[in-house]
C-alpha cells in the first residue's frame, strides 16, 4: 500500500469516527426499557415460564371462545384467506380458502360493451353461504377456513383437473369440497361431502344461499333488464322463471324438486345444477333503478338434504355464454336459458335457423354476409309459395272488371254483394284465400328471426358496415333530442328496412284488388315498425331489409313471366267448365258462415 492510499484510508476512518460521535442518536425511554442481548440472557427460567403460561392462558381463552361459538367446527374458525386461480382456455376461475368457494370468474373470450374484461361474478357482486343447523346453532361453512390440495395452474384442451378444499375438524370429522374443471369448458363440477359430525348436525337440510348482482355487460340497459331474470327447471322437466320484464320486487317459493337454477341475462348466465335435485327453493329479483352498473339483483335459497351430504352431494356450476350449441350439452333443459320464441317459432329456430347459422359461420367470418346468405337460402326455399301468392293476387286483379260490374248491379246491398262475389269466385275457379295461405306459412320463419337475432350471442360485438355490434341497435347518427317511443338515435338499417317495406307494399298494390282505407294501412305499418325496431338488433333490421329487397326482385321476375291476358282467358275457360259444377263443401261452409254472420248483424240492428 502506498503513502497516498494510507492517507486516504486514514481520512475516511477519521470522518466515520467523528460522524458516529457527533451524530449519535439520543437515548429514548423505549431504548432504556428494551433489554440488551446481555440483559435478555439474564432473564431467569422462572420469568420465562411465567410469560409462557400467560401466552397459553390467552390462547386457551381464544380457543374456548371458538369452541363455545362453533363447537365441533372450532378448528375451522381460524385461518387465513388465500386465493387459488385455475385458468383454462375459456375462463379464469378464482377460489378462496375462506369457505372453499368460487370467488370470481372471468370469461376470457368476451368483453363488456365498453371494452372491459367480462367478470361474470366476483366478491363484490356475489356472495354464497352454506348454513347447517347444529347443536351450537346455525353454522355458515362459508365463514370457515379450508386447505387446498392444489396450487394455481393453467389447463388446455384435453386437460382435466380435480382438487379438494378440506376442513379437518379432528377425531375423523371433516368437510370436503371437491371441484373438477376441464381445459375448454365453462362447467365446474362441485361436490360437497361431510365426514362424521353425525351428533353435531341436527338439521335435515343445508340452506345454500346465493346472492348475485347481475352486472351490466351490454350498451342497451333497458333491453338488458327486461331480458334478465332467474330461471329454473324442475325434475318434472318444467321450465319456469320470474317475469323478466317486471321491474318490481318479485319472489316465489318453489316446493317441487328443482334440477337447476340460473341467473340468466341476455347473453350470459351463472347457474347451479344438482344431480339429485334441490328439495325446494326461494327465488327473488329486484331492479336497482339508480345503479346503472347493475342490471338486476337476484337471490336463491336452496335446500340440500343433509343425508345427501354424507354420501357426497354432486352438483355443477355453469359460468358462461348463452350459446345454444354449448348450453344443450350442459344438462337437459339448460338450453332453454335462451328464449327462442313461442313453441312453434322456437322449433323453427332450433331445427332450421340455428343449424344453418352454425354451418355458415364455420366457413364465413363476416356475419353481415352470413345474414344475406341465410335470407337468400330461405327465399329460394319459399319461392314456390311466393310465386303462388303472386299468381293468386294476379287472378284477383284479372277479375276486377267483373267485380266492378257486380257492385253496380247490387248497389249498396253488402249481403247480396258477398253472395254474388262468392258465386263469381266459384265459377272462375278462384280461391280468395289462396294468396293468404303462402303468407301464413312464411310467418313462423318471419317471427323466428324476430327472436333469433336479438338473442344470438354469435352476433355480439360483430360489426358490419356502420353497425359496430349486430346484436344491438346501430347508430347512423344521434339526435339532439329524444323522440317518444323512438329514442335519441337513428338506426340506419331500420331506416332502410322501412323504405324497402314501403317499396314492397307499393309493388303488391300494383296487383292487389284492395281499395280504400285498407290499401293505405299497408303504408302505415312500416312506419310503426320503424319506431318499434329502432332500438332492436341491427342484425334483425338488416335481415328484414335484405328480405324485402330479394322478395321485391322475385316479384319483378315473376311479373315478367306472367301474362295477365292469358290469366284472364284461363279464368273465363274455367267459368265455362264450371257452369254445371256444384259448390264444394268448403265453399258451402264458407257461404253458410257468411250468412250466419249477416243474420247476427241484422238481429243486432233490429234490437237497437
From TrEMBL:
One of its GO terms (biological process) is protein transport. Pfam families: 60KD_IMP, YidC_periplas. Residues 35-56 have a biased composition (Polar residues). Required for the insertion and/or proper folding and/or complex formation of integral membrane proteins into the membrane. Involved in integration of membrane proteins that insert both dependently and independently of the Sec translocase complex, as well as at least some lipoproteins. Aids folding of multispanning membrane proteins. Residues 31-56, 572-608 are annotated as: Disordered. Interacts with the Sec translocase complex via SecD. Specifically interacts with transmembrane segments of nascent integral membrane proteins during membrane integration. It is a multi-pass membrane protein. One of its GO terms (molecular function) is membrane insertase activity. Keywords: Cell membrane, Chaperone, Membrane, Protein transport, Transmembrane, Transmembrane helix, Transport. It is found in: Cell inner membrane; Cell membrane. Residues 84-352 form the Membrane insertase YidC N-terminal domain. Residues 367-560 form the Membrane insertase YidC/Oxa/ALB C-terminal domain. InterPro entries: Membr_insert_YidC, Membr_insert_YidC_N, YidC/ALB3/OXA1/COX18, YidC/Oxa/ALB_C, YidC_ALB_C, YidC_periplasmic_sf. This is Membrane protein insertase YidC. The chain crosses the membrane at residues 367-386, 432-453, 483-506, 518-536. GO terms for cellular component: plasma membrane. Belongs to the OXA1/ALB3/YidC family. Type 1 subfamily. The keyword Protein transport applies. NCBIfam families: PRK01318.2-3, yidC_nterm, yidC_oxa1_cterm.
Amino acid at each position: 500500500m502506498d503513502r497516498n492510499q494510507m492517507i486516504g484510508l486514514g481520512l475516511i476512518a477519521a470522518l466515520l469516527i467523528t460522524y458516529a460521535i457527533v451524530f449519535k442518536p439520543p437515548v429514548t425511554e423505549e431504548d432504556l426499557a428494551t433489554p440488551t442481548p446481555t440483559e435478555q440472557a439474564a432473564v431467569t427460567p422462572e420469568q420465562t415460564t411465567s410469560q409462557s403460561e400467560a401466552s397459553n392462558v390467552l390462547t386457551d381463552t381464544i380457543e374456548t371462545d371458538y369452541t363455545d361459538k362453533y363447537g365441533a367446527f372450532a378448528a375451522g374458525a381460524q385461518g387465513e384467506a388465500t386465493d387459488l386461480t385455475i385458468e383454462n382456455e375459456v375462463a379464469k376461475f378464482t377460489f378462496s380458502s375462506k369457505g372453499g368457494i368460487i370467488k370470481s370468474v372471468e370469461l376470457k373470450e368476451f368483453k363488456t360493451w365498453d371494452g372491459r374484461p367480462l367478470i361474470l361474478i366476483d366478491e363484490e357482486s356475489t356472495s354464497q353461504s352454506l348454513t347447517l343447523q347444529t347443536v351450537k346453532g346455525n353454522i355458515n361453512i362459508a365463514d370457515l377456513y379450508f386447505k387446498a390440495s392444489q396450487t394455481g395452474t393453467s389447463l388446455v384442451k384435453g386437460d382435466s383437473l380435480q382438487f379438494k378444499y378440506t376442513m379437518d375438524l379432528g377425531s375423523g370429522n371433516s368437510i370436503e369440497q371437491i371441484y373438477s374443471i376441464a381445459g375448454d369448458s365453462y362447467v365446474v363440477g362441485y361436490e360437497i361431502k361431510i365426514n362424521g359430525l353425525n351428533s353435531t348436525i341436527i338439521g335435515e337440510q343445508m340452506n345454500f344461499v346465493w346472492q348475485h348482482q347481475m352486472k351490466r355487460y351490454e350498451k342497451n340497459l333497458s333491453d338488458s333488464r327486461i331480458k334478465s331474470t332467474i330461471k329454473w327447471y324442475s325434475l318434472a322437466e318444467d321450465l319456469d322463471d320470474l317475469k323478466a320484464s317486471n321491474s318490481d320486487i318479485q319472489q316465489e317459493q318453489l316446493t317441487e324438486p328443482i334440477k337447476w337454477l340460473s341467473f340468466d341475462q341476455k347473453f350470459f348466465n351463472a347457474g347451479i345444477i344438482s344431480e339429485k335435485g334441490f328439495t325446494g327453493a326461494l327465488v327473488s329479483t329486484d331492479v336497482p333503478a339508480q345503479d346503472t352498473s347493475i342490471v338486476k339483483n337476484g337471490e336463491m335459497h336452496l335446500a340440500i338434504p343433509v343425508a345427501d351430504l354424507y354420501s357426497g352431494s354432486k352438483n355443477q356450476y355453469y359460468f358462461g355464454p348463452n350459446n345454444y350449441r354449448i348450453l344443450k350439452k350442459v344438462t337437459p333443459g339448460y338450453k332453454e336459458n335462451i328464449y327462442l320464441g313461442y313453441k312453434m317459432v322456437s322449433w323453427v329456430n332450433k331445427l332450421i335457423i340455428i343449424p344453418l347459422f352454425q354451418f355458415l359461420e364455420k366457413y364465413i367470418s363476416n356475419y353481415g354476409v352470413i345474414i344475406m346468405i341465410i335470407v337468400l337460402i330461405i327465399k329460394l326455399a319459399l319461392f314456390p309459395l311466393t310465386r303462388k301468392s303472386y299468381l293468386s293476387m294476379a287472378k284477383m286483379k284479372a277479375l276486377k272488371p267483373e267485380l266492378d260490374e257486380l257492385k253496380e248491379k247490387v248497389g249498396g246491398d253488402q249481403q247480396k254483394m258477398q253472395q254474388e262475389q262468392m258465386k263469381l269466385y266459384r265459377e272462375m275457379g278462384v280461391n280468395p284465400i289462396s294468396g293468404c295461405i303462402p303468407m301464413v306459412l312464411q310467418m313462423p320463419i318471419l317471427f323466428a328471426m324476430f327472436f333469433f337475432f336479438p338473442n344470438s350471442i354469435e352476433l355480439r360485438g360483430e360489426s358490419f358496415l356502420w353497425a359496430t355490434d349486430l346484436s344491438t341497435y346501430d347508430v347512423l347518427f344521434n339526435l339532439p333530442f329524444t323522440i317518444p317511443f323512438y329514442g335519441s338515435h337513428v338506426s340506419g338499417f331500420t331506416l332502410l328496412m322501412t323504405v324497402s317495406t314501403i317499396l314492397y307494399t307499393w309493388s303488391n298494390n300494383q296487383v292487389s284488388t284492395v281499395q280504400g282505407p285498407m290499401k293505405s294501412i299497408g303504408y302505415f305499418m312500416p312506419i310503426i315498425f320503424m319506431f318499434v325496431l329502432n332500438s332492436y338488433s341491427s342484425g334483425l333490421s338488416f335481415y328484414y331489409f335484405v328480405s324485402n329487397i330479394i322478395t321485391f326482385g322475385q316479384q319483378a321476375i315473376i311479373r315478367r313471366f306472367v301474362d295477365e291476358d292469358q290469366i284472364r282467358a284461363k279464368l273465363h275457360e274455367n267459368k265455362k267448365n264450371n257452369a254445371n259444377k256444384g259448390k264444394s263443401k268448403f265453399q258451402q261452409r264458407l257461404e253458410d258462415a257468411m250468412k250466419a254472420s249477416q243474420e247476427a248483424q241484422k238481429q243486432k240492428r233490429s234490437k237497437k
